[in-house]
Structures are given as C-alpha cells and as structure tokens.
TrEMBL record:
Signal sequence residues: 1-22
Keyword Signal in annotation: yes
Start and end residues of each DUF4874 domain: 65-233
Lineage top rank: taxon: Eukaryota
Ranges for domain DUF4832: 238-325
This protein's name: DUF4874 domain-containing protein
Keywords of this entry: Signal
InterPro entries found in the cross-reference section: DUF4832, DUF4874
Keyword Signal on entry: yes
Organism of this sequence: Homarus americanus
Length: 417
C-alpha cells in the first residue's frame, strides 16, 4: 500500500502570531497574546511525508479513510423498509469499511408522492450513518427487477426530487456521491418504461432525461458529486461515472461505445470527479489483476463493491492483489481544514508532490515543554469537520497510541519561555 505520493509539508512557525495551535480538536483558537519561542525539529522547516494508505487487512476500528475503498452493499424498498441500524454499520467499520452502497427503491410510489413516513425514514438512515461514522454511495430508483420496468413519469419524478431536496441538503456530508438513478431498472437508465427503453431513445426522451438530470443537480448540494452510468450520459461538470460492469467484456458490457474515445475521456475526467462501481462478470484475462490494477489507477477509482462479482473478487484474492485495490488517488471528500486553514481542497490532489504551508503559534499561557505536532485532515462538511472518525489518516504517521483521534504525527517541538 505504499503509494508514491509525497506530501512535503512546509511548516512555518512564528511567521504569523494570529492563530494558535491550540487543542488539536478545537480549532482555530485565536490568541492576541505574543507567541512563545519554539525550538525542536518542527518550528520552521520542510518535511517530506510519504502518503501511505491504511492497510485494509490490518485496520482497527474506523481506521479506513473516508469515502474510499470497497463498499458494503445495502438496499431498502418502500414496500418493505429495512432501516439501517448502527450496530450493523459499526461492525462494517470494525472490518475497515467507511462506505456503504444504498439502494432506496421507491417501488410503492411510482404514481404518487413519497409519504411523510418514508421521507422521515430516509432522514433517519442518514443520522444513523453519521452516528456510525460512515458515508453512503446513494442510488434511488423504482425497481431492481429486470421484469419490472416501471419508473415514475417525468412530473411525478420531479415531485419526488422536490420532496427529497431538503433531506439531501441537510445530510450532504454523509453522502459520498449520488448515482443518478431514478430512471429505469436499477436506476441504470436502460430498461425503462418512460425514458426510452433499451437504448432506443427519442429526442423527447433525451429532453426528459436532461430535465431529470438538471433537477437532480439542483437537488444535490454543490459540495457533492453525481455519477451517471456511462460516459455517453455524462455531459456536465460535477457528474462522475459509476461503472457497474468493470472489466466484464472488451467494452465493459456496453459502458464504452468507443473505447478509443471514451477511455481517454474518462481518464481525464476522473482526475476531478468521483469514479467507482462494481465488477459483474469473470472475464479473464481482462478481469485479472494486471488489467484491474492498471485501470483502477488510470481511471482514479475511489470505491468498489466488496460483494460483487464473486468470481472476479476471488480471482483477485488468489492473484494476491486484493489489498492493492485500495490504491487510489489521494483526493477524498475532505477540504483541507486546519487551524488557520489553508483552503487547500485535498480532492484536487493527484498522485505526486504537493506542498502545504501551515503556520502555527502557541499561546503565551500554554505550558512549557515538548509538544507533538499533529496534522489533522478533517472532512470539509460543516457537520462532520469536528468528528474525528472522518479524518484522513496517513498510515505510517497515525499515532497508534491514540488511533481513535486519527491525527497524523509530523514531529515534535519544544515550547520555551
Ligand atoms: C497488510 O497487512 C497484512 C497483514 O499484516 C500483510 O500481510 C500485508 O503484507 C500488508 N500489505 C501491505 C501492502 O503492506
Ligand atoms: C407532491 O409533491 C410536490 C412537491 O413537494 C407538491 O408540489 C405536490 O403538491 C404534491 N402532490 C400531492 C398530490 O400531494
């Protein structure tokens, strides 16, 4: 899991006495008082830090980084609601997961508004996710059975989006990404009653699809991304791709219409937008490790389903690259946020060298002595930024005596006089 990602951190102490280091968890604490003198290895200097992903096989509770890695699949339908429960989620966390996938199947509301009761339950599930310190890859649709193609007609679908908007807005922080969904079986925009079935898509159908998408963009807070099923469907920024047949055939079962064009397009787009999905067919040699690792890297995947497709996942285990699959670019959902925040958004970081300039000062009343200098990389969402469970950790820097706080230990300094 040793990714060649170097984060040289330029730490400038005493450069600016307006912000205190303060308590690692409570930040920033402004002080007007003059600063202490600092000595030791960190007050001023440049540090090369090698970013290392937490090793998923040896993770303790909550050690996985947020918004990345394999997800655990869950589903619920309005005809038979299956509430998320915090014990289940905590057991996923114990196994090192930070993401679940969640289908919300609105099967009883194809022709009517969503009931208040269900809206409440959707909101409660988001609260449960926050309690467990997890995030969700969310997809809503009306059917996950190929024989039931019914989906809501345009006006009804737009009403549903209106109803959901305040809930999605309130809980944006725990939503890793929203998959466009809604249209067709599995929300995959293919087998559909109302929007152009099996790829036969009229001009009017395209217009309706566009309307659904722009309404969805309005419904989802700007900090969150939306993913579509194939490159063809994707026209607007903030839209990522989910490939649910990764490596399944030469075209990943029709994900690509023209690989020569679509693949480079995705390589470029996924530098800035989330990419994820699942495998759906054992297809050696294409589904074997060498191609899997190459494409996961080139397409900047951030998550995959841990439960599907078993044949492909087993082949990866026997080819012992399973652990390597958590290799991802270091962009995650977090906005860089420290005391005296630099405003750097880690989601924009690709593998390579990056610099951060941080200045810290210590308030006059701070006790003298040796201090750990810790780097905290919290979530950018206002409701999550104080929850340590969402902090990004660098495996080799995390203070193992204090793992639950998920802080990265950069060095030490002495406070004198
Ligand atoms: C992850 O941890 C396991 C168990 O200790 C170890 O066998 C494996 O080599 C580690 N993987 C990496 C990439 O460090
Ligand atoms: C359905 O919900 C929409 C959006 O909230 C609302 O404007 C409309 O009046 C509702 N329709 C019914 C029949 O309740």
């Amino acid at each position: 899991m040793n990714r060649a990602i170097f984060l040289p951190l330029l730490l400038l102490a005493l450069a600016d006495c307006s912000v205190s280091l303060g308590n690692d968890n409570v930040c920033p604490r402004k002080v007007a008082a003059p600063c202490h003198q600092l000595t030791g290895n960190t007050p001023v200097g440049c540090y090369d830090i090698t970013y290392t992903e937490p090793n998923m096989t040896v993770l303790g509770a909550g050690r996985g980084n947020p918004e990345r890695g394999f997800y655990t699949y869950t589903e619920t339908s309005t005809s038979n609601w299956n509430t998320l429960n915090v014990e289940d989620l905590q057991s996923f966390v114990q196994q090192g997961y930070t993401l679940i996938f969640r289908y919300v199947i609105l099967d009883t509301f194809v022709n009517s508004n969503i009931s208040d009761d269900i809206l409440l339950k959707i909101g409660e599930d988001f609260d449960t996710l926050r309690e467990a310190g997890m995030k969700v890859v969310l997809r809503l649709c009306y059917s996950i059975s190929e024989s039931i193609k019914s989906d809501a007609k345009l006006n009804q679908l737009l009403s549903h989006l209106n109803q959901l908007t305040p809930i999605l807005d309130e809980h944006a922080g725990v939503i890793a990404v929203v998959q466009a969904g809604f249209i067709g079986v599995w929300g995959e925009w293919y087998y559909t009653e109302n929007y152009g079935d099996e790829g036969v898509i009229s001009q009017a159908n395209w217009m309706d699809r566009g309307t659904v998408l722009s309404q969805l963009m309005n419904a989802i807070p700007a900090s969150r991304h939306i993913q579509l099923r194939t490159p063809k469907y994707k026209k607007v920024a903030r839209l990522g791709i989910h490939n649910d047949c990764f490596l399944a055939s030469d075209t990943d079962y029709g994900t690509y219409e023209n690989i020569a064009v679509d693949y480079p397009f995705l390589q470029e787009e996924t530098k800035y937008l989330p990419m994820g999905g699942e495998t759906c067919n054992y297809n050696p040699p294409r589904s074997d490790c060498p191609t899997a690792l190459k494409e996961l890297r080139e397409l900047h995947f951030t998550y995959l389903n841990n439960g599907y497709h078993e044949g492909v996942l087993n082949s990866w285990k026997t080819q012992s690259c399973y652990n390597e699959l958590v290799l991802h670019h270091p962009t995650s959902g977090a906005t860089y946020y420290t005391c005296g925040s630099t405003g750097v958004d880690l989601r924009t970081w690709l593998p390579g060298t990056h610099s951060l300039q941080l200045s810290m000062t210590v308030p006059k009343k701070a006790p003298r002595g040796r201090y750990q200098v810790l780097l905290r990389l919290p979530d950018g969402d206002s409701r999550l930024k104080d929850l340590d469970v969402y902090n990004i950790v660098i495996e080799n820097l995390v203070d193992s005596n204090n793992a639950a706080r998920r802080l990265n230990l950069i060095g030490y300094t002495e406070v004198e006089n």
